[in-house]
Amino acid sequence: RKSMYSKTLLRRLRNDMSITKLIGDVLAMPSKISEGYFRFLCPVCNEFNTATNPNTNLARCFSCQRNFNPIDMVMIVKRLNFPEAVEYLIKIVR
């Protein structure tokens, strides 16, 4: 089944929307700066044993071992399916 979204668009949504800004500002998830790292409350296991990596634009929970890109994070936090999460991010990234 062919995706209705281009690889270029999906790459842009994964990379151009800062994962830190998405978590802290857009989704308003509980977050804090601890030991110089941006930490957020994991939406899967509710632990603060997390960090974001600005180089890869990924978020990671070290407790439940999950990695999140911006699309994954929107899907979990907003309880959206993949196309809904993509549409949500398209409106923000514009």
Write up this protein:
By secondary structure, the chain is an alpha+beta fold. Helix content is 41%, strand content 20%. The protein is built from 4 helices and 5 strands; from the N terminus they run H-H-E-E-E-E-E-H-H. The chain has helices at 7-16, 19-26, 70-78, 82-93; strands at 31-34, 37-40, 50-53, 58-61, 66-68. Strands 3-4-5 form a 3-stranded antiparallel beta sheet. Strands 1-2 form a two-stranded antiparallel sheet. It is globular and about 40 Å long. 21% of the residues are buried. The model has no long low-confidence stretch (mean pLDDT 94).
The number of helical elements comes to 4
Euclidean distance between termini CA atoms: 27 Å
Low-confidence stretches: none
Structural class: alpha+beta
Number of strands: 5
Q: What overall form do the CA principal axes indicate?
A: globular
Mean residue pLDDT: 94
Q: In which order are the strands of the major sheet placed?
A: 3-4-5
Beta fraction of the residues?
15-25%
Order of helices and strands: HHEEEEEHH
Biggest sheet features: 3 strands, antiparallel
Q: Please estimate the helix content.
A: 40-55%
The Rg value, from CA coordinates, equals 13 Å
